[in-house]
């Protein structure tokens, strides 16, 4: 096997553990220097490949690379840049191959969600046609948990843990205050199309310790009357309740509930979240005092409360990607295959990219309770192992010691390319 | 010394560590059963005393009481209920004394902020006049960090740590995304009158690792042009920035910046936060893509990332309150006295309640940089030790094991009392 370099890029919204995948990948590649020369990372994702802005990861020490395991965000920069279809912009794909050729790159590792799986597949197909074979391997990552075949997606478990813990803590808080003050706490979480993250809020309530939690899923059309009745019921029983609302919740008119056409005093349009909208509905409908929060980036960046399952799996996916490459695989993605729930066991599997690309895994219908406001036992069984275990970063002076890499540029060999 | 029971109540907004004070207090009292009989807690704070709704804490095991140390919120319920002045409602104070008398209570421990310090002082004064002497001791607690004499207030350090860690993590996130997507992240934090909590966001930037952070303090009148210029400057230098905004930031017209007279599509008034307002200002003024979050209750309930300094101090305050009582003190509050910064050392001190009540400690002017958007070295020196150390709760199946006490009611001896 002729020695080739590898290219690695991070794609789309970052997570608390995407760097753990980078860590697994780079550490494993470094153990096989006879086959994989250098690992070049794309600065700001695939844009780095198109503009030939490559990072030489070999310039960073073993210690710095190891610290990626406990550092959230994308250490090399990510991007929201969808490669067009081959028909629409063949030039982009050809440019990729040209850059790979110029830097003797034989391995393409792309770390992302559905879109990047599709890009990965196309690069593999085109490289064959162009007579410069590239082994293209997709490394799964998405807080949305919507990739098919794999049991779950690295990045999701840590968001789920953050939301479960935060929901539990906020519910304890509102329980203390409800006698004379706040009775309803509304927490807005990510999830435009699927309610995976919102579902995690349901984990805060257990058989041993029931908590009054109402979940608003994007899968369930918002019904104001039923929602208010449920909140009212819980507040009457417990004295308080917590509402976990997915940003993607829709009204019956097919619009996002968050889209209320808000205008400021001067008539300017204002962009608000869905949490204040739901809070106002509670106030107007039941006259209850409320508080609301919006977790936004905090939820997906919260490496301080990452799930150990998630960190282990993210690392394993990066490691497996290199191992697959070494075995000669192409156009594949490592997957997490669940072996058993109790005790939780999983192993690394392999999926063909042709079966991953353009397939979105939605939350099964039997994961949502009949009333539409909670999670079923089946959902709980699925989610519970994913938030298991803690994996704390090291601290200094009260702050987590997250690493910033040197990110030294590889000298360019080609001319400019207009994006 | 005749054996007397003790009364303990939690007041105002709860924190991640107010139960650690309860733990220190109850555990210490249990070691002196020859002098302090039982510790009765007020259900929902002082309301529990007025309505004779007392909780017998002796019904909970040593293990359950020990778990209070790592449980956020107020285990006995808190309340927002300000006792009126003696002149306005002498009946309330007399009722308190009557309840204390009926249950042989000789110690009044009140765990709260400025208002409860004032109530505590009044109870002590009135009890003397009424010939039923009560030793009234205030246990400091407030995320607002605005009590005088004590160097800092239990509850604040953990919020500060949560905001510092979250700001760091969100800044790493936006750094990864800025090339093609979000360039500004806006985080709304608590603090209606003082910028202590917002200041903690500044800790995310250190000498070793500078982060582009803009802080909006309630102490500094919001100036749109200067703010946009600062954001623009940082985005040009770093590619991104994080704005930490205090909920209490005011415009030049003396109104809260959050109060934008928002109306929905039907013309109904909507209550929004200040984060979306600031985000919209960034969008309109600079055309930059943004995200925003509102930490709300998550910040003060986040026991999972509590500061060890804070937990230790909260416990020590509860313990000292009992020790002061045993020594015969009355109308006092234990304080945290800073001995040195490096290494951080502190000891328990004592303040007279007459000097605590109705005095609000504001953030010193020299804690804010001249441009109004950052913290000074002096501020950093003050804040840094308060977020030091981690004190993780125990976990089971991925969730913190927070305790719910039995909260068994003490049989009533008196008639009803109308609040």
From TrEMBL, chains A, B:
The active site is at residue 144. GO terms for cellular component: cytoplasm. It catalyses: beta-D-fructose 6-phosphate + diphosphate = beta-D-fructose 1,6-bisphosphate + phosphate + H(+). Pathway: Carbohydrate degradation; glycolysis; D-glyceraldehyde 3-phosphate and glycerone phosphate from D-glucose: step 3/4. Residues 9-324 form the Phosphofructokinase domain. Non-allosteric. Its cofactor is Mg(2+). Its EC number is 2.7.1.90. One of its GO terms (molecular function) is metal ion binding. It is found in: Cytoplasm. Keywords: Cytoplasm, Glycolysis, Kinase, Magnesium, Metal-binding, Transferase. The record marks 141 as: Important for catalytic activity. The record marks 115 as: Important for catalytic activity and substrate specificity. It is an enzyme of class 2 (transferase). Catalyzes the phosphorylation of D-fructose 6-phosphate, the first committing step of glycolysis. Uses inorganic phosphate (PPi) as phosphoryl donor instead of ATP like common ATP-dependent phosphofructokinases (ATP-PFKs), which renders the reaction reversible, and can thus function both in glycolysis and gluconeogenesis. Consistently, PPi-PFK can replace the enzymes of both the forward (ATP-PFK) and reverse (fructose-bisphosphatase (FBPase)) reactions. Homodimer. This is Pyrophosphate--fructose 6-phosphate 1-phosphotransferase. It comes from Sulfuricella denitrificans (strain DSM 22764 / NBRC 105220 / skB26). The gene is pfp.
